Inverse folding.
């Protein structure tokens, strides 16, 4: 179906801050269709975390056919060995899931999450939308790496969305948010010291904090229950800033220095 071009440039620095991450994708056609979906909305950063066919998926005839003009996005897709690697350098990540989770980051609507992601992108921060495999979706561990959990409110009697369809919905919402940000007056910017920490900085903090809690005998590594999961949810609600991560790591460092070696 033809799409009317907007007056704004189809791709610019703001749009390049958005990354669309596909985790353990099985079907090469979905990779190509996802490339087409994001390109139609002006985006071009596609990341594949452990795709079933590895790097061969980028040259698969079905992927190329369904990319249908988005061959450049498909060919430039980045392939990573796992989700943490795919989120390296990302400040704000949104997990897409058809299932609600008892534990995990706070839930958000697609439009709200796109607006918030765009706000971070206007500050020069990288954002990512993370999609799971066709059969199993995202694992709880993958969801916990993200700042928000989004469920597309489809027809409850038939809520089955194809992977590339879900990507298209979110890319559309992200485009609307970006176009609104480009035409709205400034005034929502945060000072540099309040910029969010990246996902790898936060993961390093969690590793450091977990070691400190074990040293205090507050966390039993043989029976951790859901302590770290609950802490992840707590910090995900706040959105950790770079300086806050440094403070928490400083606390963990001093705990470890004062605890006798076991």
């Amino acid at each position: 179906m033809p799409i009317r071009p907007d007056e704004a440039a189809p791709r610019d620095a703001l749009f390049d801050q958005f990354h669309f991450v596909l985790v353990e994708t099985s079907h090469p056609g979905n990779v190509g269709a996802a490339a087409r979906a994001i390109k139609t909305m002006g985006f071009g950063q596609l990341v594949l975390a452990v795709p079933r066919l590895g790097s061969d998926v980028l040259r698969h005839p079905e992927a190329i056919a369904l990319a249908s003009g988005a061959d450049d996005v498909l060919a430039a897709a980045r392939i990573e060995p796992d989700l943490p690697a795919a989120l390296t350098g990302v400040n704000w990540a949104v997990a897409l899931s058809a299932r609600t989770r008892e534990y995990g980051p706070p839930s958000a609507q697609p439009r709200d999450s796109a607006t918030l992601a765009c706000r971070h992108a206007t500050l020069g921060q990288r954002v990512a939308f993370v999609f799971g495999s066709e059969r199993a979706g995202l694992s709880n561990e993958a969801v916990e790496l993200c700042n928000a959990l989004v469920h597309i409110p489809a027809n409850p009697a038939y809520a089955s969305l194809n992977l590339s369809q879900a990507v298209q919905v979110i890319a559309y919402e992200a485009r609307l948010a970006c176009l609104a940000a480009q035409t709205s007056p400034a005034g929502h910017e945060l000072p540099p010291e309040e910029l969010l920490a990246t996902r790898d900085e936060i993961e390093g903090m969690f590793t450091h904090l977990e070691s400190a809690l074990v040293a205090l005998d507050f966390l039993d590594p043989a029976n951790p229950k859901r302590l770290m999961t609950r802490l992840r949810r707590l910090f995900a609600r706040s959105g950790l800033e770079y300086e806050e991560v440094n403070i928490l790591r400083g606390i963990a460092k001093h705990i470890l220095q004062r605890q006798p070696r076991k």
Remarks:
- The first helix runs from residue 28 to 40.
- The mean pLDDT is 86.
- Residues 188 and 199 are 23 Å apart (CA to CA).
